[in-house]
Write a structure and sequence with these properties.
- The complex is a heterodimer of chains A (about 100) and B (about 290).
- Chain A is an alpha+beta fold and about 100 residues long.
- Chain A has two helices and four strands; from the N terminus they run βββαβα.
- Chain A is globular and about 35 Å long.
- Chain A starts with 6 loop residues before the first strand and ends in a 9-residue tail after the last helix.
- Chain B is α/β, with parallel strands linked by helices.
- Chain B has two domains: about 10-235, TIM Barrel, CATH 3.20.20; about 240-285, no CATH class.
- Chain B is built from twelve helices and ten strands.
- The chains are: A alpha+beta (about 100), B alpha/beta (about 290).
- Chains A and B meet through helix 2 of A and helix 1, helix 2 and helix 3 of B.
């Protein structure tokens, strides 16, 4: 799938993560930037979750920035899902 | 359905706040209420829904009952909430601004369709109806009594006063009739009834007084907006040691007398009959004490 618009989800609060997504031109590939207050302990795991979610939605040409303040895995996944759906204009049951 | 459980406190947690959700179980509230409605901005409903869905699956809320307040079906958010939350089968769905039994019937039909699609039973998750409008107060007995899945009703004081075009005052004058009518509907239906929140988290004495009043007129418990309020409400609702000892003695002697064919008897000169025994049994259930 191809992202239509730049989108974001999450907050800078503790235990949360803010995710920003923007579409890139075709064949640009993925550009992923993750920064986290627990990067040394959980950076690899965070990166794996991001790649799995992008694979799930078949997103290839995308710029993703994630700034993490110690979010747990279910929070990371929820914020990624929300940002991805917003960028694909697939979100339901919310005001845009 | 309608199993006994303590519902002295019901802690509201905003559905889009991961820190508060993951810590929700540690404060000792009897119920946790993950809120997708008023605590979530209109443009963050999708984010909160995904977060609550993911967190319910893995978060340890200890012994607390876990409820989710969804948005009303008349909003663009209500159906999407049900589609995400019903398959997870929290202990209960809390439905805001319930005004009529027809509305509850429509809601339950949608919930049961979703449950059918996921192969889930219709008798596991219950429904808490929030009474927050003058029309809801007028119809509350039919809302409370007609559906086996409705196992609690609650009063929403702020919305109710707004609907009545009056100001919410600390003496609760404007909602006193509604409080008592809602309590009576719950008692007649043998379900729980939860009082509205006390909005001033810094006024501990005011909270204690309002909780004592709520207990006196029959509320099972009280909604909580800050963990600091939990201990005070539990103190008010938890029976004292003296009350427990007295209740234990009443129930024990009642059983012994019943076995001997005696229906009415006296303890220290005071007549003990069925209503007093029933009250003593209720108090022991609150204290989680079994008479051997």
């Amino acid at each position: 799938m191809k992202p239509k618009i730049a989108a974001q989800s999450g907050t800078f609060e503790s235990s949360d993560v803010i995710v920003l997504i923007e579409p890139l031109p075709e064949n640009s590939g993925r550009k992923i930037e993750i920064s986290s207050s627990v990067m040394h302990q959980f950076g690899a795991s965070f990166n794996r979750i991001v790649v799995e979610m992008l694979d799930q939605y078949e997103l290839t040409d995308i710029h993703l920035i994630a700034k993490d303040k110690g979010a747990l895995e279910p929070t990371i996944k929820a914020r990624l899902e929300t940002a991805i759906k917003r960028s694909l204009d697939l979100q339901e049951g919310t005001l845009k | 359905m309608k199993n006994f459980r303590n519902r002295r406190t019901m802690l509201y947690i905003p559905g889009n706040n991961p820190a508060m959700i993951q810590q929700g179980g540690v404060y000792g509230a009897d119920s946790i209420l993950l809120d997708l409605e008023d605590a979530v901005a209109l443009n963050q409903k999708d984010a909160a829904r995904a977060l609550v869905r993911n967190m319910i699956k893995v978060t340890n809320f200890y012994d607390a009952e876990v409820c989710v307040r969804v948005n009303h079906l008349s909003t663009p958010f209500g159906l999407a909430d049900l589609e995400e939350i019903v398959p997870l089968q929290p202990s209960a769905i809390r439905y805001p601004k319930t005004e009529s039994p027809e509305e509850v019937a429509d809601l339950l039909a949608i919930i049961e369709k979703i449950e059918d699609r996921h192969g889930l039973p219709h008798n596991r998750m219950t429904l808490h109806a929030m009474i927050e409008t003058a029309m809801g107060v007028q119809n509350v007995f039919n809302i409370a009594s007609k559906f086996s899945r409705v196992d609690a009703i609650t009063i929403g004081g702020q919305d109710l006063t707004a609907d009545m075009n009056i100001i919410y005052t600390s003496d609760g004058a404007g909602i006193d009739f509604a409080r008592k009518r809602i309590v009576m509907a719950a008692k007649a239906s043998h379900i729980d009834v939860i009082d509205t929140v006390f909005p001033d988290v810094n006024d501990e004495e005011g909270l204690r007084k309002e909780t004592e009043y709520a207990k006196k007129i029959g509320f099972t418990g009280k909604a909580v907006i800050n963990p600091r309020q939990i201990d005070i409400i539990h103190e008010v609702y938890t029976p004292t040691e003296e009350e427990i000892r007295k209740a234990y003695r009443i129930v024990k002697e009642f059983r012994a007398n019943s076995a001997a064919g005696i229906g009415v008897f006296a303890i220290e000169g005071k007549m003990i009959d069925a209503p007093i025994v029933a009250r003593a049994e209720y108090l022991l259930r609150l204290a989680k004490i079994t008479v051997s």
